Amino acid sequence: MIQSMTGYAAASADSPRGTLSIELRSVNARFLDVQLRVAEELRALEPMLREMISARLARGKVDCRVFFSATGAPAAQRLNPEALERLAGLAAEAAKAFPGAAPLRVADILRWPGVVAEAPAEEEQTRAAAERIGRRALDELTAARAREGAKLAAAIRSRVAAMRGRLEEVAPLVPQSLAAYQAKLGERLREALGSADDERIRAEMAVFAVKVDVDEELTRLHAHLGEVERTLDKGGAVGKRLDFLAQELNREANTLASKAASQAVSDCALELKLLIEQMREQVQNIE
To answer: What is the rounded average pLDDT of the residues 274-287?
Structure first.
């Protein structure tokens, strides 16, 4: 299955402290870049959420937001003795450095990260709820990315079909255009040399024929297009491979344009470059 790197998902569930919600947004990126925006009291959930996201997604910049919406009666809370002890030590050191500073107020102490904690049972319930809705949000996000990926794959296949059609149209014209250009070149060589030295003229045209022979480029273009289709059929995280194939297609199209011996071949090369660029725009969104 081909997946896009763009998507959005959200999920929520009740917990002892209120409604716990998770939002996931993903956009294009060269690698997997997970950005977590988590409320201070939920920092303990970060490793679990990061691991869950990394296990399901291969590429993209993922913004994960986790927050509470308080409902009902406030959950039972307690003071964290270890956090209080650390804060007291910091306050003592600060008082030595700044003797005239005002002491900490109770409100300041309660706002200090980690001082107010949930009861252990409620922490486990919150973690279980976060894991449950995290998986649900990831299911929704991957489904959205898969739907978008299917559209991108269809768009790329249509460009491949268009390129194949254009190559099939121009291939029969290559020998004819090459022969006509050789005849024209022969006349110019005779005029430039001022003689009818057929042997020399044939040698010059043979060198020219090698330089403008596009059979190899046409064969490679067909091979690369076939590889694009096989990669799409294989599925998975194929964005980087498709981008490489698009670069190879563009290089062959450039060579075809530089060796074009007729307007028909030149026009074909320009149309191929346009279709390849359109394909690359779609490929940039694929995981």
So the answer is: 94
